[in-house]
Amino acid sequence: MAISFFGKKPGADQRARGGTAGGKPAPRSELSTLDFSGAGDIGRALAQCADKVEVLEGGDALLAVAEEAAMLFANGNDVEAASVLEAALDGAVGEEAGEGLWLMLLDLHRLAGERPRFDQRSAAYAARFEKSSPSWEDLSVAPPAPEAGAIPCVTLNGTLSGQAAQQFGKLVEFARGNGGVRLDLGRLRGADDIGCEILRSTLAELRRERIGFELLNCGHLAGMLGGQLACGRRERQASWKLLFDLLQCAGEFDRFEELAIDYAITFEESPPSWETPSVANAVAPSKRDAAVRPDNDFRLTGDITASEQGQLRKLAAFAAERAMVDVDCSRLRRVDFVSAGIFFNILATLRSQGKLVVFRHVNNMVAALLRVMGVDQVAQIVTRR
Question: What pTM was computed for the model?
């Protein structure tokens, strides 16, 4: 379903389709020329585009609430985002609010796993709009376990350190018994050199035994390690080598090559070489995935941040060969501000080439940010309910 938070200017529908009255492609907006690919300086990027985001007519107070909550959530300030939405809905402007703000708050409770608060607010939603409310779904946890025959996913939490040695030994047994494993690195909060060596040894053992594995959210751990290592500081060599592995898994060739030069300078030895991941080590898709996902389907998952943009590059490459792309966002939790800008740049380019990208099942917090950034002008956004 598509919920409008803002009013429309004349011709808004036509611009969203990428055309004008004469059938010519819509011109690129100023926003598409901005550089969102910097080193995560969100404050500077916000200032850069503050006068370039188009504010549409409609309830200015409600628009400001939606924008503020979306920005807070994008930057990881979930509690503050909830407070902004609750204050608006329970305050003076609450009676004027359409479904958009309500669905944002309901999705925020889903993302936080707050069932009691969701139930309370959904009951008020049903009374307010005289219709059934969205059903509860806990979006704070990993997706449900796959059906029999699919490869299970294991999420790594906390700090990757020497204390994890025993758990990684069990992980190999688990992968061996299930025919493979997916490792989600997105919730790690730290890593030391011993922990990095343990993870590398575990992956090497899986390769030796030809057990399929896949690393998810590589960019999260790569960004963390990249901030801890410095050219010329001769230490944490295992962390350097794990960073090479992560960049290779994420397909970040340019960054890999830059790191290789720093490694050679630091350790005065040849760096690891880029290798295409072996097909033998890849996790095979389940039969169900192969059966139901058509050729133009793409999936975004987890959190897309300034340090985890591999999915965006893969989407751009995937869409480059197709006239239409359906993007399943049912497992996409969050997009940060910088990545939303990169989304716009990619999609504006694709739209100018006559390609249509449709984002489906987008949670309402992410959808609000994408609308603020003008992504709905160059792609279709269909929210979840």
Answer: 0.51
